[in-house]
Amino acid sequence: MGATMALRGTNQEFGRPYNRRIVLETIRLEAPIARGEIARKVGLTVQTVSTIIRELELQGFVMGSREAPKGRGLPRTNLTLNPEGGFAIGLHVTPIGVSAALVNLAGKIVGTRHHPMSRVSPEATFPVFEALIAEMSALRPDGRMLGIGVAMPGPSDVDSMSFVGPTTLEGWKGIAVGERLAEANVLPVFAGAELGAVALGERLYGAGRDFRAFYYIYFGVGLGGAATVQDGTVLRGVYGNAGEIGHLPLVPGGDPCPCGNRGCLERYVSRDALDRRLKAVDPTATIETALTEHPDVVDAWIAEAAPVLRSAIATIENLFDPETIVIGGLASDALLERLIEGTEPLMHSVAERRGRTTPRLTLSSNGRDAVLRGAAALAISGALSPRFGLLFAGEEERTDRDPIMTGPAKKEVAA
């Protein structure tokens, strides 16, 4: 596993809620792990850690299992998260509909649902949110629900890029998604950009666990990206739009883009780009069946898109120097693998280090559900993160905000 940020507890009495979250976070990141190891990592006494572990076991957040005997003395007990100890609902809004998932504490998806929509307007979407939240909650009616995470497409609040064209959400300017959803729900709500959510989900539950810093290329209706920095957090930028590589103008005099420029990357590399080429041949064609029903169109698209993506990869590597670039999104692994193969040979960049053992490109292990898992991770992190989490918090702590969130929690989590 990649390097993680040092977590340190406090032996002051007022820090007990914080210590509980520190211990829980350490188990989440390092499991299976014994009490003594936790104590060493967080700087607390074994007695303090043991007391916290007993509380977490009683509340159903963690569980322990003894190792096989290896000689004299009692074998140690290794601690892991109890997957059924908590759940979060992830919502993902796209220009083609809304998806939802129920995700457990270990990041496993319990169930999903996609609601296609011809026009994703706020008036039509909020009732869909409520129906999907109810449907996901019903999958674990007695489960502890930690919160609701909502992933919204970006870039945020850029008139020429956020509200115009087939890869954006028209009519959403000025809509406070998190606040509006929180008013109608008992659970805390956390809203964030889909790029930050997908990178967070990949870091916590996917291929990103193996890297200290990686860049995520998200193949969605449009194209975006997100960089994680050395401590595993997502680089967001001043206005939350860092990583919006879809509007890099890489093809001089290329296809016009709704943003007003020409030759933008996502006009060639995105679900919308492939869909436009498919529809020109067969109005009923879908990306899901393109490889089998229209392989010639896919081949022609890759021949056009891969060189543009190859240039973008060299740009990303030179700017961010990541350990790897993870690629995933709203396409099958087979299609993304074909696209990755098409970029070979990659261009020269700072990534060409002597002795390199990691691949320059890595296929996401979260598949098509990457954003949904990431949206739920917004809520799980909002409840569990050591510095900002709401779980176990006293009233004086509940004013803190997690910097990756754009919507504050409004209501308390039911214990």
TrEMBL record:
Taxonomic placement: Bacteria, Pseudomonadati, Pseudomonadota, Alphaproteobacteria, Hyphomicrobiales
Domain HTH crp-type: 25-76
Similarity field: Belongs to the ROK (NagC/XylR) family.
Key word Metal-binding present: no
Domain of life assignment: Bacteria
Keyword Lipid biosynthesis: no
A GO term for molecular function: kinase activity
Protein name, entry field: NBD/HSP70 family sugar kinase
Annotated InterPro entries: ATPase_NBD, HTH_CRP, ROK, WH-like_DNA-bd_sf, WH_DNA-bd_sf
Keywords of the record: Kinase, Transferase
